[in-house]
Amino acid sequence: MAERSEPLAQSAPTLPSDRELVDHLERAVAEVFATMIGECERIARLDGALPGEATREEGRVELDLHAGASAAMSVEREAVVEFRGPLDGRLSLRTGEQCASAIARGLLMSAPDDPLAREDVEDALKECANMLTGWIKSQALDPVGSFSMSVPFIGAGQRELVGPPLGALVYRTSGGLFALELTRRELRREAGG
User: Fold this and answer.
1) Does residue 34 register a pLDDT over 60?
2) What's the structural domain count of the chain?
3) What is the spatial distance between Cα 32 and Cα 181, in angstroms, rounded to a whole number?
4) Where are the beta strands (DSSP E) in the chain?
5) Which backbone phi and psi does 5 adopt, to 5 degrees?
6) Does 122 reside within a domain?
């Protein structure tokens, strides 16, 4: 009599850890982002905690990096893409005006002295944030569930914390510094539940 075997129970795929998501973001910068905007040197990696933030004159935001020679980074532009699925969160690309223009010039392959409209710079930053989030979605999130991404949008500059931080990466380019931040979105509790 042949023995009947029970099918092996398949365990549900597990979501990547916060550290693994930041690792994927770092690979995305190296493999996608840096080839389009030029040389990028990572100067800080913050797992969990995001850099401290202070609002300065004229609404300018400064990130306290505590990373080597650069103690602070001015934030004047922010592009955001949110992702939704078994894990909800957002990626923010935050930078100063000069670096934002350098990123846009690299993406648009324009000369350093070519004038750029504000919309061109914002569109380039949104596209960069979209590509980085797309990498994380395809490489880390889609293998464990069904995820969607928001349309990229320009944030207010001052960080909108939507939940616990996953981590941040800070890079130096020829145009200055930019930070990439990942946060989880807090789930809203339904009334009565």
Assistant:
1) yes
2) 1
3) 17
4) 41-47, 52-55, 61-67, 70-75, 77-84, 89-95, 148-149, 153-154, 165-173, 176-184
5) -100, 140
6) yes
